[in-house]
Amino acid sequence: MKIIDSGVIFRNPLPGHRVINSIYPNIHILPDGEWLCVLRICSALYSPDGILEIFRSKDQGKTWDRQGPFIDRSGDSARFSEVDGIVTGMKDGSLIMRISRWDMTDPGKFAFNEESGGLLPFHIAWMRSTDNGRSWSAPVEISTKSQFGDTIEPAPMGGIIELADGSWFHCFETWKTYYDDGPYNLQSFGLFSRDGGQTWSEKVEVANGSDTDRSYSHGVPIQLKDGRLLVVYWAAEPRLQSYYDLHTVVSTDATGQSWCDPKPTGIPAQTSCAAQLGGDRLIVIYSHRENTDQPGIKIAASTDFGDTWNLDEPLVVWDAYGKEALGVARTDTYPASHDAIAYGAPRLTRIDVDHAVATYWCTQGADTHCRWATVGWAG
After folding, report:
1. Which pLDDT belongs to residue 340?
2. Given 3-state DSSP classes, what are the helix, strand and coil percentages for the chain, each rounded to the nearest 5?
3. In whole angstroms, what separates CA 61 from the centre of its chain?
4. Residue 7: which of 31, 25, 29, 32 has the closest Cα?
5. Which of 40, 127, 241, 347 is deepest in the core (most CB within 10 A)?
6. Which domain holds residue 179?
């Protein structure tokens, strides 16, 4: 793999006057070739002031137009902090965006409970656009309590996927509730909607390591060319104090009803995302932090659909050497260990059989911002 072109999506134009950070970029390529990117504008990674905005590029990332916020907040009864938005193209030509928000009305509550490590409840919804993302419908809530109950805080993973039969599929991972002092049990499940996103049911196990003392999290499901689904997971021991290599999970068919067992890749990483290129070629972009002299955002490739991965010389998309943290020592306990991270959330969007566009957030000169890089198959 090689980097063909790269650039900045958005960074603070007036850093001497105000703090403006941007994180969690997600690109969707429209049928006419325009790039649509949703990202979070905020003062910090978990700050209560997050707002989702759309940026657009007609020249493959060289220049970007700031479309701005797209959610009407005037009727909100709470102080929501918008976290991420992921766009999916539907068969009818419309766009669906899955969004997530935290209610941060209470100034004494952080996104993660400092004592228990529990997570604030996500308010998860979807919106529709019929004009290529220039306007959006009101959010439609995705209710998950009937499937997960009150003892689990489900967190959304990736975007909504429209299956071959017209059903919608969405993945969730099982976090602790805010005041839960018990251990983590981070596992992955999927829900289906058979009525165009109005109701969600039929919980299916995607990756569950409860019986083997493993957790599987931070996965981003993608749809393969044959309709099957694939997810790459950050694998860890249950307390999230030590980690394994990335594991892949593939559905047995295009329905998403059953899944193969998690398969190790040998890739030493945390958050990641895959893309399928031509033939049996897969690429995975990932955050590399632990046990390395070269921290950063990297890409590994496979030519045999993930049976083996070339790890001798991964493509370094963002060199984070000396730029790993935000100036304070990282703690040893997750999730507090991620409070001071300075890069992450890498994503891949397929362009064609030989190319994909990578997005990620990073920090340079105390400025946390979003970047892109077009990557291609060398030779």
Report:
1. 84
2. 5, 50, 50
3. 20
4. 25
5. 40
6. 2-376
Q: What is the pLDDT of residues 354-376, one digit of tens each?
A: 999 999 999 998 899 999 999 99
The domain that holds 289 is classified in CATH as 2.120.10.10
- Is residue 139 helix, strand or coil? coil
With tokens 């957790």, the residue in question is 215
CB 232 within 8 A of CB 219: yes
One-letter amino acid at 19 equals: V
- As a dihedral over the C-alpha atoms of residue 16, residue 373, residue 330, residue 245, rounded to 10 degrees, the angle is 170
Please tell me which residue, 120 or 379, carries the higher pLDDT value: 120
Band of the pLDDT at 297, cuts 50, 70, 90? very high
Model confidence over 51-78: pLDDT tens digits?
Answer: 999 999 999 999 999 999 999 999 888 9
Confidence check: pLDDT of 249 > 90: yes
Phi, then psi, of 277 in degrees rounded to 5: -100, -150
**Whether the Cβ atoms of residue 262 and residue 209 lie closer than 8 Å to each other:** yes
Contact (Cβ atoms closer than 8 angstroms) between residue 262 and residue 274: no
Question: How far is the C-alpha of 5 from the C-alpha of 88, rounded, in Å?
Answer: 24
Q: Encoding tokens for residue 11? A: 């960074």
Q: Decide: 87 and 96 in contact? Cβ < 8 Å.
A: yes
SS3 for 148?
helix
How many domains does the chain fold into? 1
Are 51 and 39 in contact by the 8 Å Cβ rule? The answer is no
Beta bridge partners of 84: 100
Q: How does residue 379 score in pLDDT terms, banded at 50, 70 and 90?
A: low
Phi first, then psi: what are they for 170, rounded to 5°? Answer: -145, 140
Beta strands in 33-167 (DSSP E): 35-42, 51-57, 65-69, 80-89, 95-103, 122-129, 140-141, 152-162
Q: How many residues does the chain have?
A: 379
